[in-house]
């Protein structure tokens, strides 16, 4: 069996479509067909969770729930939950940028209308599926639905500011709020049912076509999440449940001051006492959602950069040991082979590499990091080893064309020496080098496939606003670009 594979990194929100952001509808299926046509085997996406204020898929209200904006309304219409005329008067949405707030204002009333219709129908199979979903997912869904209903009730305020009875999860007051917010709770349960119903249909379609889906698990969860609210003991919080220490990374390639993420860090001692039950649930859940999973900020499973809460930069942190070896050992004892990928970028020590290699996890190599030193640079394709996933760039990088066009000084000289050009031809050479390398898996962001510059960048680390919105349009894809992708994939036996 040929282990060499290639694929495309594209988040669901970046898909084309008429609903203001990509969805799990027809354009997602069309993208699977595009991957098949160009001989790809992998579709890599970003986390699918319900995003917070800045629309980052790495800052979600839940580590288990799905983003309701990805629910496709045409599918709801086909299922009889919306009338076709409900979808006729769509706002004019940008084709280049996901307009998240505009989508929320238009889409939520329609989702409520679909929910109302759902409560009125008496479709046996549909209701059986729904009741089965509620039963199977109650272990996370009950808290999530209450959390989101309470979030709306308290006008989006963070849960640490809720009344003490709910904040500290007093059983009597929790029950009272469940009764008080019953309608909204049922609405959120319905939305999760629809999200996962649509997701698994798409995943099954992709798998039947020979396309595997690579998911993404952020190491941390958001402070304002149901995960922290319902598991306060596994995070380092004070008596008022406010984080004492927060996550980030020290100064590195991306940022002179490091990155101050602000997520609460784990209480690994308490996690161990609980036999890592929350981590096990999370990993099993994601391995059911996807064919394999990238663990974002993998190095934080070996040791993590812990920053005192209240610091204004990430400089004044310290490294603290984690218990990733125990987590991965337990998971391996339960499922055998670990279909995980270690995002091992940044400040990587021998200990991190030992943890990765102990479980034979592929690491990552990113070409855009390759030209800052000399010919021994580990990110240069001639220095790759097999058990890696090689990238032109990731969602955190500039597009490869944007990077090439902005290169200066010695880095530009090195790029010219290696790639020959710093234009679209250089981009093609970069993709071909990655595809031709010994790395078992090669991935390029969709922006590189269709040769877009910095205006199509997905995320700039350390900058809060203006990220995550990029979308492509089918008309962006030239025939020669598809032919090139197919050519290098066949040429290099992927």
Description:
The strands form 2 sheets. The protein has an 8-stranded parallel beta sheet with strand order 9-6-3-2-1-12-11-10. Strands 5-4-7-8 form a 4-stranded antiparallel beta sheet, with no helix packed on it. By secondary structure, it is α/β, with parallel strands linked by helices. The model has no long low-confidence stretch (mean pLDDT 95). The longest helix has 27 residues. 41% of the residues lie in helices and 11% in strands.
Task: Give a summary of the structure in a few sentences.
Helices cover 41% and strands 11% of the residues.
Give the helix/strand layout:
Elements lengths: L4 E5 L16 H12 L4 E3 L28 H6 L21 H21 L3 H13 L1 H16 L10 H4 L3 H10 L1 H27 L3 E6 L8 H5 L14 E5 L9 E6 L3 H6 L3 H13 L2 E4 L7 E6 L9 E4 L2 H12 L4 E3 L7 H9 L4 E4 L21 E4 L8 H7 L2 H11 L4 H13 L4 E5 H4 L29 H13 L3
Parallel strand pairs: 1-2, 1-12, 2-3, 3-6, 6-9, 10-11, 11-12
Antiparallel strand pairs: 4-5, 4-7, 7-8
């Amino acid at each position: 069996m040929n282990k060499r594979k290639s694929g495309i990194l594209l988040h669901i929100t970046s898909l084309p479509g008429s609903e203001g952001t990509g969805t799990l509808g027809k354009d997602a299926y069309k993208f699977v067909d595009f991957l098949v046509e160009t001989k790809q085997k992998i579709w890599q996406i970003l986390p699918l969770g319900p995003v917070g204020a800045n629309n980052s898929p790495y800052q979600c209200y839940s580590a288990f729930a799905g983003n309701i904006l990805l629910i496709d309304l045409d599918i709801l219409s086909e299922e009889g939950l919306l009338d076709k005329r409900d979808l006729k008067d769509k706002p004019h949405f940008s084709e280049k940028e996901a307009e998240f707030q505009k989508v929320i204002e238009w889409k939520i009333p329609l989702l409520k209308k679909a929910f109302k219709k759902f409560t009125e129908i008496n479709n046996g199979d549909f209701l059986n599926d729904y009741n089965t979903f509620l039963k199977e997912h109650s272990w996370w869904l009950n808290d999530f639905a209450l959390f989101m209903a309470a979030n709306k009730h308290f006008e989006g305020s963070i849960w640490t500011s809720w009344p003490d009875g709910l904040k500290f999860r007093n059983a009597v007051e929790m029950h009272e709020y469940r009764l008080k917010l019953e309608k909204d709770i049922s609405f959120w349960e319905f939305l999760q049912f629809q999200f996962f119903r649509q997701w698994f249909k798409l995943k099954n379609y992709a798998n039947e076509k020979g396309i595997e889906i690579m998911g993404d698990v952020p190491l941390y969860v958001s402070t304002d999440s149901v995960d922290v609210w319902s598991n306060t003991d596994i995070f380092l919080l004070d008596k008022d449940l406010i984080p004492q220490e927060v996550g980030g990374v020290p100064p590195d390639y991306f940022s002179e001051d490091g990155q101050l993420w602000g997520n609460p860090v784990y209480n690994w001692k308490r996690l161990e006492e609980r036999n890592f039950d929350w981590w096990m649930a999370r990993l099993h859940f994601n391995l059911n959602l996807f064919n394999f999973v990238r663990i974002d900020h993998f190095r934080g499973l070996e040791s993590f950069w812990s920053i005192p809460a209240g610091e204004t930069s990430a400089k004044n942190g310290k490294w603290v040991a984690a218990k990733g070896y125990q987590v991965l050992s337990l998971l391996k004892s339960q499922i055998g082979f670990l279909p995980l990928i270690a995002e091992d970028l940044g400040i990587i020590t021998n200990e991190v590499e030992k943890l990765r290699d102990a479980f034979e996890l592929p690491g990552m190599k990113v070409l855009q990091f390759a030209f800052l030193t000399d010919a021994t640079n580990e990110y240069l394709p001639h220095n790759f080893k097999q058990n890696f996933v090689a990238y032109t760039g990731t969602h955190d990088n500039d597009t490869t064309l944007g990077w090439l066009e902005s290169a200066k000084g010695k880095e530009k000289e090195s790029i010219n020496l290696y790639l020959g050009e710093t234009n679209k031809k250089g981009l093609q050479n970069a993709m071909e080098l990655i595809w031709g390398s010994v790395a078992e898996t090669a991935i390029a962001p969709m922006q590189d496939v269709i040769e877009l510059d910095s205006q199509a960048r997905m995320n700039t680390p350390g900058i809060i606003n203006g990220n995550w919105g990029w979308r492509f349009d089918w008309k962006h894809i030239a025939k020669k670009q598809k032919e090139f992708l197919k050519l290098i994939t066949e040429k290099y036996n992927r």
